[in-house]
Amino acid sequence: MTDRAKPLIQANKHPTCRYFKTNASRYIKPNTVCKLLNTDLAAATHTLNEGFSQEKLNKKDILGFKASLYAGKAYVAFSLLDKTSLAESLSCNKSEYTHLPDLDCATLAEAMHKVLLDNIELIDIPSITIVILAELLKQIEAFKLLQGTSSKENKTSPVLTKAFDDTLPPLLESVEDLKKLVGFYFETKPDFYARVMATSAIPTVHVIHTYIIITAILKSTGKPAPGITFALAKAKKNGTTDRDGILNFEEVRSGEDVLTGTSEGKEVVYKKVKIKRSTTNEWEVVIEGM
After folding, report:
1. How far apart are CA 50 and CA 69, in angstroms?
2. Using CA atoms, how far apart are residues 28 and 61, in angstroms rounded to an integer?
3. What is the pLDDT of residue 19?
4. E strands of the chain, at which residues?
């Protein structure tokens, strides 16, 4: 027992606090105290997001982005061939996918994929091939198998809620009182003491990281820029754009950072960026001098 706790014990031979209404070891079972404490901890950490998956939400954003990208390219190809019905059957906006429930989102992406695959000979675009469509189908299947839900109503992190800010300080104070007062039972009821001390640990608040999707575009032609290596200085993330000029960064902290881009050892991009939290950041970066 700490010296700080001794006055409390001396002043009250049968200590009470928010969780001890009477002589706890005699009249309250350890399970009762643990249950009360866990209820408060759950309220403080906003555990109403059961089943929510930040990973699934991020994967849904990426799937919607890619599906709308390929659909948009195919739409143009079909329109030039006066294949209006085929063009109109495609969903070309990302929100048409991401605003749907998870299963409906995957079904819509599969329908778009089937239209493109069935008419691949009409689409004379290097960035839409059988191989690329096979990769897209794998993404769709992986999204369907991913556990959890992307429901945005459960997206809020505990650190963003006013309820969390209002609940945690008094809870921490009560827990500290509990730890001091329960010392009264250290020798007489060691099992009770150990269980309450173990239960009074405040759970970790998980930080929600964000996703970044970079699309590199050549200023000279307006076409995608593959092979550009981007790096975020503070986040210590780096990667190279694919054949569509796209690069994804996962698990990046929000805040300000510096984005650089190089091609064949030459710096072609240097800019300060602001990364928004709890959402997917989509950046279109224009590459000059190539």
Report:
1. 32
2. 50
3. 43
4. 210-218, 229-232, 237-240, 246-252, 255-263, 266-275, 280-287
253 near 209, Cβ under 8 Å? Answer: yes
Tell me: the pLDDT tens digits for 31-85? 555 555 554 444 444 444 456 777 888 888 889 989 998 998 899 889 889 998 9
Q: Say whether 167 sits in a helix, a strand or coil.
A: helix
What was the pLDDT predicted at 262? Answer: 92
What CATH code is assigned to 210-287? 2.60.40.1120
Closest residue by Cα to residue 194 from 41, 34, 35, 39: 34
User: Across the chain, how many H-helices and E-strands are there?
Assistant: 10, 7
Write down the pLDDT at residue 156: 41
Q: Are 209 and 252 in contact (CB under 8 A)?
A: yes
State how far the Cα of 286 lies from the Cα of 62, in Å rounded to an integer: 20
Separation CA 193–CA 189 (nearest Å) = 6
Q: Which residues of 228-243 are buried (b: 16+ CB within 10 A; e: fewer)?
A: bbbbbeebebeeebbe
> What residues in the chain have per-residue pLDDT under 50?
1-30, 39-49, 152-161, 205-207
* pLDDT of 157: 44
Q: Which of 170, 171, 160, 109 is nearest to 135 (CA)?
A: 109
Q: Is 283 within 8 Å of 213 (Cβ atoms)?
A: yes
- Count CB neighbours of 27 within 10 A: 11
CA distances, 233 to each of 28, 145, 230, 251, 272 (Å): 55, 34, 10, 14, 10
**CB burial class (10 A; 0-12, 13-18, 19+) of residue 156?**
middle
